[in-house]
Structures are given as structure tokens and as C-alpha cells.
Amino acid sequence: MRLPSVRIPLYAFPVLVTLFFSSCETQADRDKYQALVRQNDSLRTVIDSLHKAIELRERRSVAMLTDMRTGLWRIDPHRESGRLIFTTEYPNASVYEIAKALNAAFHEDSVSEFRITGVREHTVSVKVLDATRLTQGLGSTGAQEYLAQVTFSLTSVPGILDVNFEFEEGDHASPGTFDRTRFDELTK
Predict the structure, then answer these.
(1) Which of 85, 91, 167, 173 is geometrically suited to a Cys-Cys bond with 128, CB 3.0 to 4.6 A?
(2) How distant, in Å, are the alpha carbons of 5, 8, 134 from that of 1?
(3) Domain range holding 22?
(4) Angle, helix 95-108 to helix 139-154, in steps of 10 degrees
(5) Which of 162, 105, 166, 104 has the alpha carbon at shortest distance from 135?
(6) Going residue by residue through the chain (188 aa), what tens digit of pLDDT does each one get?
(7) Which residues, 6+ apart, have CB-to-CB distance to 143 below 8 Å?
(8) 97, 67, 104: which is closest to 84 by C-alpha?
(9) Do 29 and 76 reside in the same domain of the chain?
(10) What is the pLDDT of residue 95?
(11) Does residue 150 lie within any of the structural domains?
(12) Residue 162, beta-bridge partner list
């Protein structure tokens, strides 16, 4: 005959331990009980802090995806792994003004610049001027960061939701239409 499995919730653990050890008569048993209670409290504290950290990370990510201040988004230079941050606000700027400011920053960084080839409905089309530098010279991470900076910066302009990149496909980047959700990993 098979016995049914019993699942005991985590919050019932201290009660069961208390009941078990309340019948213990020796000091050693009471000491073991106290050690288990401290360990349980310590684990609960660690679990609570992990839950808070995860919740904060998710809120920051969503906030970045929905942050609609108009301006430049750049890769944080103070972190080893790339993370997008909002750097400069340009209230009421057009996509052309944002492109000019971002290209100036790219020029200083010796990164390939781009040109807007059209704006249609909610999409800006851009042509990367030195595609070889993007697709072959920056590596996969650098290319991804470049595309993310352009996408986040141009989609910060009200009404713009997507960026269509025009360039010849290479080892580290492919052309196409991107929105902010494509670069979710760079917002964490």
C-alpha cells in the first residue's frame, strides 16, 4: 500500500520544531532547537532580501523600457558589463536633433555614425554609414550595444516606436526593425 505524500508549508516548520522539542528534556536538545530556529530566521532573511532584489530589478527594467524622456541613452561607462542609462535630456527634440547629438557622441568614441533615411508612421529608418565597423569591428556585444543606444535614443521621441536599421549583414550584427524590448537584457 502506498502512503500519500504530505507537503508541509514553510511557515509550519517552526511550529513543528517547537512541538517536537518542547518534549525534549535535555539542555542539548534545547540548544539544537534554538540553533534550528536561528538558522530558519537567517534563511528567511536571505530569502526576503533576494525577493526584494528581484522585485527591484524587475521594476528598474520595466521603468527603463517605458521611460519616455526625450534624449540620449548610452552604455554606462562605469560598469564592466554593458547597461543602458539615460544620459542627456533634450526636451521637445526631433528625431533629427537626437540623431545629431548621438552621432556627435559616436564621433568622439570613434564609433560608426548613422543617417536618418526616413520617418514613416512610428518607425525611423537609419543607414549605418560604416557598416563594416559595426558588423566586424565591435564584436557581438559592441554591435548589440550600438543598436540599443540608437534604438533607445530615437524611440525616446514621442510617437516613435521602432528603428529600422539598414546595413549589410555581418558577423556581429544584422539589419532589421528593432524596438526597446529587443534590448531588455541591457536594461538590467
Answers:
(1) 167
(2) 13, 22, 67
(3) 10-64
(4) 150
(5) 166
(6) 555 555 556 665 666 666 665 655 677 777 777 787 777 777 777 676 665 555 544 444 444 566 678 898 888 776 666 678 888 899 999 999 999 999 999 898 888 889 999 999 899 999 988 877 666 656 657 778 888 889 989 999 998 989 999 988 877 677 889 888 887 776 66
(7) 134, 135, 172, 173
(8) 67
(9) no
(10) 94
(11) yes
(12) 123
DSSP class of residue 77 equals: T
Whether residue 98 sits in one domain with residue 34: no
Which uninterrupted H or E stretch holds 146? helix 139-154
**Which of these three, 64, 89, 109, is where a domain ends?**
64
> Does residue 170 belong to any structural domain of this protein?
yes
Give the per-residue pLDDT at 52.
58
**For residues 47 and 74, what is the distance between their CA atoms, to the nearest angstrom?**
34
Asked, for residue 3, whether it belongs to a domain, the answer is no
Residues found in the chain: 188
Look at the block and give the residue holding cell 502512503. 3
Q: How far, in whole angstroms, is CA 132 from its chain's centroid? A: 27
Q: How many domains does the chain have?
A: 2
Give domain status of residue 1, yes or no: no
Indicate the DSSP class of residue 184. Answer: G
